[in-house]
């Protein structure tokens, strides 16, 4: 990241002006920046900070997976190299032909069993009595950390979420998806996908009277105002065809639906960083408020009512306020440690999370500081700070330390 981009980004967040999506409501399309001239600074400035989607070609990302591993055989025998590497891996598989509670039921198969099903389905004209099975949310990177079959593009390496989960060795948010034609940032390793995207706020028009999002945004039921009273006000989705080797950046809050146009393998990472940490914090606060409203009648009679609300929220979101603080502390410590080292370019094997350079670390620290400041001003968190012995260090002390290091690094 260059100096101009750093200062421009910090000024934008200080001004607290939210991104605008009016151009998409008027029918604007999604950019496809190409060529070797696309720098990280330009991507950061034009897409990450304003929360705008884009499609990157394989030549831009310079992070193609080992193609022979993912390539189907020419004789229709499936994916022999994938089978050889991971045949005994247990993978989650969803049945796209069955809907249960607005989702698809899942089962576990070995990858060998799934590839056998896929091969048979292709041989029978893309049909199977077992339905359309989609390998979904396989944590390949977590289960096989030394897989070496793909690397994260430079543009997406500021990834606080997976940096945190890697540090506590419990989970990750990196997924491999494999599925036949007709199944539902995504990097296409082979095959083509059709994406339908809605800018933040548009999803409200896709909710039924009970508040549930439509299972299929193309369903004729959306034209029924008795079922979906707001659908008439919605704009048409932005359509993107993702080709093999392309990477689609789907920003925070962009509701989307995906269809495989042919047999497809893709890698998807859920992530967050300094550009959207405020969005995550607003989401957590809204989720806690919803829980508090739901069980508000027991507020005075239930012991530890506030802590119970945190437990319920975590069961829905995967994180409560205490863990969000520990998450922020982890990123802050990593960045301060690296800045304190005095290195300008970490090079291979540099400190975790620092590979994008000193200015990225400075930006991250400023954004952690802003999130900590908002967290400390929240009454529900302040209550936990007093009651919960599980917090790593004094939140107020951490905020002062972050501000001091961030300000001195910027001058």
Automatic annotation (TrEMBL):
This is Jumonji domain-containing protein 4. The lineage of its organism: Eukaryota, Metazoa, Chordata, Craniata, Vertebrata. One of its GO terms (biological process) is positive regulation of translational termination. It catalyses: L-lysyl-[protein] + 2-oxoglutarate + O2 = 4-hydroxy-L-lysyl-[protein] + succinate + CO2. InterPro entries: Cupin_8, JmjC_dom, JMJD6_ArgDemeth/LysHydrox. Signal peptide: none annotated. GO terms for cellular component: cytoplasm; nucleus. Pfam families: Cupin_8. Belongs to the JMJD6 family. Residues 141-288 form the JmjC domain. One of its GO terms (molecular function) is 2-oxoglutarate-dependent dioxygenase activity. SMART domains: JmjC.
């Amino acid at each position: 990241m260059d100096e101009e981009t750093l200062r421009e980004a910090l000024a934008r967040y200080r001004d607290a002006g939210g991104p605008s999506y009016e151009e998409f409501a008027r029918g604007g399309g999604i950019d496809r920046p190409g060529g070797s001239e696309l720098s990280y600074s330009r991507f950061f400035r034009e897409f990450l900070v304003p929360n705008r989607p884009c499609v990157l070609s394989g030549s831009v990302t310079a992070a193609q997976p080992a193609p022979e591993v993912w390539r189907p055989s020419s004789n229709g025998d499936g994916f022999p190299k994938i089978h050889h590497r991971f045949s005994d891996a247990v993978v989650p598989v969803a049945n796209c032909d069955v809907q249960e509670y607005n989702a698809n039921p899942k089962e576990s198969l070995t990858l060998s069993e799934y590839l056998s099903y896929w091969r048979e389905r292709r041989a029978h004209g893309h049909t199977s009595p077992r339905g359309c099975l989609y390998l979904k949310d396989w944590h390949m990177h977590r289960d096989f950390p030394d897989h070496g079959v793909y690397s994260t593009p430079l543009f997406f390496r500021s990834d606080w979420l997976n940096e945190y989960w890697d540090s506590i060795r419990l989970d990750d948010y990196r997924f491999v998806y494999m599925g036949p034609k007709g199944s539902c940032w995504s990097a296409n390793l082979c095959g083509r996908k059709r994406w339908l995207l809605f800018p933040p706020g548009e999803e409200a028009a896709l909710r039924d009277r009970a508040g549930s999002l439509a299972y299929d945004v193309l369903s004729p039921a959306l034209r029924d105002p008795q079922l979906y009273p707001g659908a008439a006000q919605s704009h048409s989705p932005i359509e993107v065809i993702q080709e093999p080797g392309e990477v689609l950046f789907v920003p925070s809050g962009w509701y989307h639906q995906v269809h495989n146009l042919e047999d497809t393998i893709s890698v998807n990472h859920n992530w967050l960083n300094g550009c959207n940490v405020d969005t995550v914090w607003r989401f957590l606060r809204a989720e806690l408020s919803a829980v508090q409203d739901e069980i508000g009648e027991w507020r005075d009679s239930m012991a530890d009512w506030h802590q119970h609300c945190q437990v319920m929220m975590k069961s829905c979101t995967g994180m409560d306020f205490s863990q969000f603080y520990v998450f922020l502390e982890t990123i802050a410590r990593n960045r301060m440690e690296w800045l304190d080292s005095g290195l300008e370019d970490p090079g291979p094997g540099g400190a975790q999370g620092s590979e994008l350079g000193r200015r990225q670390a400075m930006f991250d620290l400023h954004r952690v500081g802003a999130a900590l400041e908002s967290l400390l001003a929240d009454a529900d968190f302040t209550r936990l700070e007093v009651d919960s012995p599980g917090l790593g260090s004094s939140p107020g002390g951490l905020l002062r330390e972050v501000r001091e290091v961030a300000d001195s690094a910027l001058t």
